[in-house]
Design brief:
Length: 109
């Protein structure tokens, strides 16, 4: 399959994160004594796709990563990935937008 420009432009930190995720998935599979074939069957994908997931291939759809995590019993943390409560940059930007003073409207006086 041909890699898109977006994949080749991935920052190093993102590539490292995907590689770590793939390695962690591989470790979780092995700890559960699960073969690649069994994980592939349960995730409704091919064995080659599981191999790509375990390598951290950015061309694999996020839905497949999520399904594999679900099969391994690790999907409960997916919802917290972009949680606004832990988004420090977003919180800082929101604070900068707060007004310096708050005035009541003339009608309400």
């Amino acid at each position: 399959m041909k890699a898109s420009k977006a994949q080749s432009a991935l920052p190093i930190s993102v590539r490292r994160g995907l590689t770590k995720l793939g390695g962690d998935i591989s470790t979780a599979r092995k700890r559960r004594n699960m073969t690649v074939a069994l994980l592939a069957e349960r995730a409704f994908v091919g064995r080659n796709t599981i191999t790509r997931v375990e390598r951290g291939d950015p061309g694999v759809a996020i839905g497949i990563y999520a399904t594999v995590l679900f099969v391994l019993g690790l999907a409960d943390r997916l919802g917290a990935l972009a949680d606004p409560a832990t988004d420090q940059v977003g919180q800082t930007l929101a604070e900068e937008q707060l007004p310096k003073r708050v005035r009541t409207k003339a009608e309400a006086r």
